[in-house]
């Protein structure tokens, strides 16, 4: 058994509304075997992984998988469930899995859910799969696999890679408020919202946090000085840079003292309650020497107060790491018992941090007269640290309701003095519920923290949990403030790019900042910021992450959906132009119905109450309106059709719906019994008075989408009239002139598109034409043949060339196939092979009679336009455009 590939799909995808990976497995000699063929395999597997007995496996009850395992199931299915169980064992809670047989014998696709915010580049999922293959193979070979060490390693890797408690809580709070969340780094950087409503958070640092404030808070001496200037009680302190200076400062401050690095975090190298100069000097050296802050020790309890946007939102009393004796166990055993608490993990990945036995802990035990082998009395508290930090194993108690108003004022003033919108104030006080007595030094602010940890407030050991993450999100998005921008998703087989461009053109003219992603690239406003095929989720990220974008228009192609999932969580308007034969034979697509299933995801992942624009002239597309998932979204259906007599449109209008159609030469909005003429077809740029029916259909779809977004009728008329096809929609098609020869440049690359382009050329010039064609090499032979047949139906002179990107074909292979297919339909056809684009066009010019048009099909537009520009071609001027 081996893993041939692993692909990660974003959410939503064809399998789940959460991320998944798809692993292509080659089962080798196990391809024809089932689990029941190996006597005792099921029992051995369950002995190793007893949790498999809880797997439902589509039966809605525990034990479903065990039943299938005993009856006999293929080993791809076994690997799926073993991987899921291994995930559970390392604390990676995922439940969905599916195993699908591929077109290749012995090959299976195993689809497995991933945690929503798991870092996309993380290798844990692949390592779990490899471990599942290994242990399954070992058990089939009669060996007992040892997986404990590897599971422990993977658990540690996963703990380090997952979002920490604070970041996870922020992500959860945002989603509860319907705010999109995207993890941007291996760390905890999150993007909230879309476009102009985008906000950033990095743990508890927000996009509104002052960089100066963060730098101030990281400099403990400067923080203390600023707080003192603001009249806030702080410990007396001095910066020391040598052991001799420590001794001198100790006598000036009086003992006990605290030693801490000027720049440190999470209580690292902080030494408290140092009672003698020698202790202080030793701590100075342990703190790294150099420059450290030495301050007077403030007696009392440790408190952390969280201030957000100038107000206190939570407070906790902190206790240092400790164990409590039971009269039987030694300290080492008590530490192990505490660390068995599932709430404890490494670093900040869990509500509590594991207790660590290091030199600091051992030294502190010695001060208390203990070592790791000591057995404390029943109820005796043994401290492992002096400083009360959760990051060193401390615990917390919520005291939010006890904070005295004096303390509250000090905390909010401290946040203002440092300049932080979100900060943690560390205090030492006798009692946080008591007033501070001026001049008594009974309490002080000992530290101000930028990016404060939220664990102590979210999951205190005692007292009420506080939704501090929700408060921070509400600080970023005030009540009623939007987090989303309107998203228009456009999919289909033909017309996607043109329709997306039309929608973006109109919306841009209304004054909105439009971000658009199509197969031609990504643009923001009038600027092309990325050139290339941009119809997948990465391009959507580019648009949705741009703070200048107020509305997004996203062409959403089949390839991106299949290989990566959608690039957004839901669209406000979804447009499906048509679904016809293309990409057959790719990614397991065998029929148009398979294509419908893929593209239907765009319709099904629409926001509740969103608008779905469907082509009523295409049965596969129109049928999406009745899908249960679409109906459950309460989507507003807007049909478009070239004929007002379309039965789907007529029925929809009788039910009070809205449709867009052509009636007596006018583009009409029909709403129930109301009819409004919007635009005459002769005024549609690039439609040639309606002869280019595909362009008319694209405009109908675009108008429906724009109306769904609230664009007025008068604005639609005015803005559509400003469209310049050659500039705003190049190559879909572009018509140029070289001398008296018309040249039609288009991207048609499937039978339906080629057929309509051939008809347009005939209707415009009523004379024979020459076709210069190339077809994508990644299409199956049958589709290539069908496309060539469509060419032969119209053209009697054809020049065939191959694009530089052969898409997996051998050089010359496509040319031979296309020419053979052309001759099948039309034995007398004149077919000429060419070595490249320039040779093809030069040959076509030789074949062309004076005034005959040329249809030039391309894979990449820029080389075509560059060639024609070099030859002196100019835009075709025709009063029918």
TrEMBL record:
It catalyses: [L-4-(L-arginin-2-N-yl)aspartate](n)-L-aspartate + L-arginine + ATP = [L-4-(L-arginin-2-N-yl)aspartate](n+1) + ADP + phosphate + H(+); [L-4-(L-arginin-2-N-yl)aspartate](n) + L-aspartate + ATP = [L-4-(L-arginin-2-N-yl)aspartate](n)-L-aspartate + ADP + phosphate + H(+). GO terms for molecular function: ATP binding; cyanophycin synthetase activity (L-arginine-adding); cyanophycin synthetase activity (L-aspartate-adding); metal ion binding; tetrahydrofolylpolyglutamate synthase activity. Keywords: ATP-binding, Ligase, Nucleotide-binding. It comes from the Bacteria. Pfam families: Cyanophycin_syn, Mur_ligase_C, Mur_ligase_M, RimK. Residues 224-477 form the ATP-grasp domain. Its EC number is 6.3.2.29, 6.3.2.30. InterPro entries: ATP-grasp, ATP-grasp_RimK-type, Cya_phycin_syn, Cyanophycin_syn_N, Folylpolyglutamate_synth_CS, Mur-like_cat_sf, Mur_ligase_C, Mur_ligase_C_dom_sf. Homodimer. In the C-terminal section; belongs to the MurCDEF family. Catalyzes the ATP-dependent polymerization of arginine and aspartate to multi-L-arginyl-poly-L-aspartic acid (cyanophycin; a water-insoluble reserve polymer). This is Cyanophycin synthetase.
């Amino acid at each position: 058994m081996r893993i041939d590939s692993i692909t990660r799909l974003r959410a939503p995808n064809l399998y789940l509304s959460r991320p998944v990976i798809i692993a292509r497995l080659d089962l080798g000699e196990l391809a024809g075997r089932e689990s029941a063929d190996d006597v005792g395999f099921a029992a051995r597997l369950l002995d190793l992984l007893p949790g498999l007995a809880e797997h439902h496996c589509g039966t809605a009850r525990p034990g479903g998988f065990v039943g299938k395992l005993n009856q006999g199931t293929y080993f791809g299915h076994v690997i799926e469930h073993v991987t899921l169980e291994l995930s559970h064992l390392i604390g990676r809670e995922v439940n969905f899995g599916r195993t699908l047989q591929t077109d290749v014998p012995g090959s299976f696709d195993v689809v497995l859910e991933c945690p929503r915010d798991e870092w996309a580049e993380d290798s844990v999922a692949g390592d779990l799969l490899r471990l599942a293959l290994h242990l399954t193979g070992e058990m089939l070979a009669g060996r007992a696999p040892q997986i404990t060490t590897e599971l422990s390693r993977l658990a540690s890797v996963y703990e380090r890679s997952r979002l920490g408690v604070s970041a996870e809580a922020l992500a959860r709070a945002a989603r509860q408020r319907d705010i999109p969340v995207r993890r941007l780094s291996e760390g905890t950087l999150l993007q909230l919202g879309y476009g102009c409503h985008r906000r950033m958070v990095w743990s508890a640092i927000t996009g509104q946090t002052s960089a100066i404030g963060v730098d101030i808070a990281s400099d403990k001496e400067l923080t203390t000085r600023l707080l003192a200037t603001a009249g806030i009680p702080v410990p007396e302190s001095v910066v020391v840079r040598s052991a001799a200076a420590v001794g001198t400062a100790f006598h000036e401050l009086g003992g006990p003292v605290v030693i801490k690095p000027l720049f440190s975090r999470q209580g690292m190298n902080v030494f408290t309650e140092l009672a003698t100069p020698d202790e202080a000097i030793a701590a100075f050296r342990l703190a790294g020497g150099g420059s450290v802050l030495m301050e007077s020790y403030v007696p009392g309890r440790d408190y952390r107060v969280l201030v957000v946007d100038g107000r206190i939102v939570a407070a906790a009393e902190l206790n240092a790491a400790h164990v409590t004796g039971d009269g039987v166990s030694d300290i080492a055993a008590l530490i192990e018992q505490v660390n068995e608490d599932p709430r404890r993990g490494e670093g900040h990945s869990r509500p509590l941090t594991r207790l660590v036995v290091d030199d600091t802990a051992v030294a502190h035990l010695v001060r208390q007269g203990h070592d790791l082998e000591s057995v404390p009395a029943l109820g005796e508290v043994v401290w492992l640290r002096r400083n009360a930090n959760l990051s060193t194993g401390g615990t917390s108690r919520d005291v939010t309701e006890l904070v005295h108003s004096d303390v509250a004022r000090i905390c909010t003033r401290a946040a203002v003095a440092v300049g932080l919108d979100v900060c943690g104030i560390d205090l030492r006080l006798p009692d946080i519920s008591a007033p501070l007595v001026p001049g008594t030094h009974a309490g002080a602010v000992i530290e101000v923290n930028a990016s404060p940890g939220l664990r102590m407030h979210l999951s205190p050991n005692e007292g009420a949990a506080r939704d501090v993450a929700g408060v921070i999100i509400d600080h970023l998005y005030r009540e009623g403030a939007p987090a989303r921008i309107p998203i228009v998703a456009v999919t289909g087989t033909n017309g996607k790019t043109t329709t997306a461009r039309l929608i973006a053109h109109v919306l841009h003219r209304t004054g909105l900042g439009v971000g658009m992603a199509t197969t031609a690239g990504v643009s923001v406003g009038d600027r092309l910021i990325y050139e290339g095929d941009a119809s997948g989720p990465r391009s959507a990220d580019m648009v949705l992450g741009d703070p200048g974008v107020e509305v997004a228009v996203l062409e959403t192609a089949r390839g991106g959906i299949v290989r990566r999932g959608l690039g957004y969580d839901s669209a406000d308007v979804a447009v499906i132009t048509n679904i016809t034969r293309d990409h057959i034979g790719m990614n397991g697509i065998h029929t148009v119905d398979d294509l419908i299933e893929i593209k239907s995801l765009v319709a099904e992942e629409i926001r509740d109450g969103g608008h779905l624009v469907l082509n009523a002239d295409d049965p596969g597309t129109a049928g999406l309106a009745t899908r249960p998932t679409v109906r459950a979204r309460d989507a507003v259906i807007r049909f478009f059709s070239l004929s007002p007599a379309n039965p789907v449109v007529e029925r929809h209008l009788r039910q009070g719906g809205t449709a867009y159609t052509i009636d007596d030469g006018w583009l009409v909005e029909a709403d129930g019994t109301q009819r409004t003429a919007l635009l005459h077809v002769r005024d549609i740029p690039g439609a040639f008075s309606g002869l280019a029916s595909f362009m008319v259909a694209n405009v109908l779809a675009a108008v429906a989408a724009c109306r769904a977004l609230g664009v007025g009728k008068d604005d639609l008329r005015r803005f559509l009239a400003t469209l310049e096809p050659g500039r705003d929609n190049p190559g879909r098609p572009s018509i140029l002139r070289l001398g008296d020869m018309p040249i039609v440049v288009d991207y048609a690359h499937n039978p339906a598109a080629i057929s309509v382009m051939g008809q347009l050329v005939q209707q415009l010039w009523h004379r024979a034409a020459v076709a210069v064609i190339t077809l994508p090499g990644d299409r199956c032979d049958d589709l290539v043949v069908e496309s060539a047949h469509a060419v032969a139906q119209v053209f009697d002179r054809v020049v065939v060339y191959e694009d530089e990107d052969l898409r997996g074909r051998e050089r010359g292979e496509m040319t031979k196939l296309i020419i053979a297919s052309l001759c099948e339909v039309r034995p007398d056809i004149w077919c000429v092979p060419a070595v490249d684009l320039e040779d093809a066009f030069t040959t076509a010019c030789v074949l062309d009679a004076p005034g005959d048009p040329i249809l030039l099909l391309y894979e990449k537009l820029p080389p075509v336009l560059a060639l024609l520009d070099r030859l002196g071609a100019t835009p075709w001027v025709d009063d029918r455009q």
